[in-house]
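To illustrate the input format used throughout this study, we show a single complete record. The first block contains the structure-token representation of the backbone; no residue identities are included at this stage. The design step must infer an amino acid for every position from geometry alone.
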């Protein structure tokens, strides 16, 4: 019986990315040895994120209310908009402290082969924001890989009718990489070195 429930926990932990059997086993036994209240905090946090997390209706960041904390922060520079692929990218860019504008999350990148067409991304919503917001600069911070580049080029075309400066984060990031894994200094340099496109 005890074997069964531990095995079950190991199986569940192994569903997480980058976690193999050995690590899952170590984590499962660690959880088993934790004080009950600490272990319950983990399970409560998982429950809460699944029950309450939703997308911000403005920028598609993860939030527990209608509008996320960044969009509702009146001290942010509303003239600058940073476009990213995933909500997790916002956390990384925020950690650099180098950007004080707003964000727009695409929820993916263009990849026609995988069926990721422009309609599947929040591109139309970005265009709508261009019409109503006072955005002066759009920084394209999609990943520096093929899909990210294609996405940046596409958005650049879509934004041509608007009187807005479009920049692309540039040097500092390795090509073929993922901004998720960039260190803060590299990412901060990349934002500083953005170029018009
Ligand atoms: Zn938001």
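Output of the design step:
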């Amino acid at each position: 019986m005890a074997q069964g429930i531990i095995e079950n926990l190991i199986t569940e932990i192994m569903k997480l990315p980058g976690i193999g059997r050995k690590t899952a086993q170590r984590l499962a036994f660690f959880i088993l040895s934790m004080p009950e209240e600490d272990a319950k905090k983990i399970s409560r946090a998982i429950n809460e994120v699944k029950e309450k997390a939703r997308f911000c209706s403005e920028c598609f960041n993860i939030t527990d209310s209608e509008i996320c904390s960044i969009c509702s922060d009146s001290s942010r520079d509303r003239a600058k908009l940073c476009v990213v692929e995933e909500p997790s990218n916002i956390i990384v860019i925020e950690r650099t402290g180098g950007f004080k504008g707003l964000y727009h999350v695409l929820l993916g990148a263009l990849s026609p082969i995988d069926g990721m067409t422009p309609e599947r991304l929040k591109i139309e919503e970005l265009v709508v924001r261009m019409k109503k917001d006072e955005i002066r600069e759009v920084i394209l911070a999609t990943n520096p890989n093929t899909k990210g580049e294609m996405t940046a080029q596409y958005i650049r075309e879509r934004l041509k009718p608007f009187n807005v400066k479009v920049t692309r984060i540039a040097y500092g990031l390795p090509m073929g990489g993922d901004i998720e894994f960039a260190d803060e200094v590299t990412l901060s340099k990349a934002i500083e070195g953005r170029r018009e496109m």
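Structural context for interpreting the output: The mean pLDDT is 91. The CA atoms of residues 16 and 48 lie 18 Å apart.
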